């Protein structure tokens, strides 16, 4: 039997690992299936990845997780440079200053364990290199937490850089726009999510729209931001978030937020407009997130297909 949360290079999560024990035979079988997928060229579009849903929902085994992330992050992405120590020297002075300040607090926040701080120099070079290759974005606070997760998983600087680079640049994942000035990507996601909420929980949409202290899109954008950076949730749940985000893109985030509403429906129903917005903005602090199997089950039940997501996004953009 394998306790998955014990395997992240010694950095354990905050929940009880006994809840996530799997039989060795099932892990071996799924590991072999993922090894075949890594070698395949069949899954270069979201539509072709729908057939992987059952396998993804069972969880990507630790042995191949880093390779899966690397593979799917870079699908059909043209890269005309090699990662080397020289790239990081092209970072701007402003970005470099913020990167160094943020790196000191990264691992304590992203995985709740300062022992990972021995990877700080690698993280700094990864962020410097990305900022140098994408000067329009440069470096924005929050990118450090995203880049730290694949680094904790693989302890491989080069592989982490390319995984992070793919997450930012690959349009099938497309999180670059959530780090642009003004966070436009988060606000688009918020509007898409609100449309799904209108269809299923119209009373909640009305509450959020009646909140005098903040527009619904601001409250929901903050909610998406907290879950992507995910300060307070267990490490294993963050890993699963990355599994799904890298393979399915922003559908994973919207589906997760729909699961959040399902889980906290009663609490939100009792809240007033301002309290409901505040609850969502701080939802990652709720202790129920320590029950990873329960959260994942709700997430699976609320999963939105890529077709439905894109159709709804197009509807919102044309309004």
Automatic annotation (TrEMBL):
One Pfam match: RabGAP-TBC
A GO molecular-function descriptor: small GTPase binding
SMART domains: TBC
Extent of the signal sequence: none
Rab-GAP TBC domain mapped to chain residues: 59-249
Gene3D superfamilies from the UniProt entry: putative rabgap domain of human tbc1 domain family member 14 like domains (1.10.8.270), Ypt/Rab-GAP domain of gyp1p, domain 1 (1.10.10.750), Ypt/Rab-GAP domain of gyp1p, domain 3 (1.10.472.80)
Name of this protein: TBC domain containing protein
Organism from which the protein derives: Tritrichomonas foetus
């Amino acid at each position: 039997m394998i306790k998955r949360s014990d395997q992240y290079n010694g950095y354990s999560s905050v929940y009880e690992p006994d809840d996530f024990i799997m039989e060795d035979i099932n892990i071996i079988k799924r590991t072999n299936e993922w090894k075949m997928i890594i070698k395949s060229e069949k899954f270069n579009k979201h539509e072709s990845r729908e057939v992987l849903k059952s396998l993804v929902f069972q969880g990507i085994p630790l042995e191949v997780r880093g390779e899966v992330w690397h593979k799917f992050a870079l699908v059909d992405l043209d890269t005309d440079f090699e990662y080397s120590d020289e790239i990081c020297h092209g970072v701007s002075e402003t970005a470099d200053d913020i990167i160094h300040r943020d790196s000191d607090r990264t691992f304590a926040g992203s995985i709740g364990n300062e022992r990972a701080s021995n990877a700080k120099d690698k993280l700094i070079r990864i962020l410097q290199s990305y900022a140098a290759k994408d000067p329009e974005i440069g470096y924005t606070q929050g990118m450090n937490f995203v880049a730290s997760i694949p680094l904790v998983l693989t302890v491989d600087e080069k592989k982490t850089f390319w995984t992070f680079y793919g997450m930012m640049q690959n349009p099938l994942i497309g999180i670059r726009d959530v780090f642009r000035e003004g966070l436009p990507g988060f606000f688009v996601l918020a509007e898409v999510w609100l449309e799904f909420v209108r269809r299923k929980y119209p009373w909640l949409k009305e509450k959020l729209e009646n909140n005098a202290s903040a527009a619904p899109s601001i409250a929901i954008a903050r909610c998406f931001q907290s879950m992507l950076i995910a300060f307070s949730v267990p490490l294993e749940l963050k890993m699963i978030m990355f599994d799904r985000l890298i393979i399915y893109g922003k559908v994973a985030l919207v589906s997760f937020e729909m699961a959040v509403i399902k889980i906290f429906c009663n609490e939100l129903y009792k809240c007033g407009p301002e309290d409901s917005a505040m609850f969502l903005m701080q939802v990652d602090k709720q202790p129920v997130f320590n029950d990873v199997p329960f959260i994942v089950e709700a997430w699976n039940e609320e999963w939105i297909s890529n077709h439905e997501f894109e159709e709804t996004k197009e509807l919102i953009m044309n309004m």
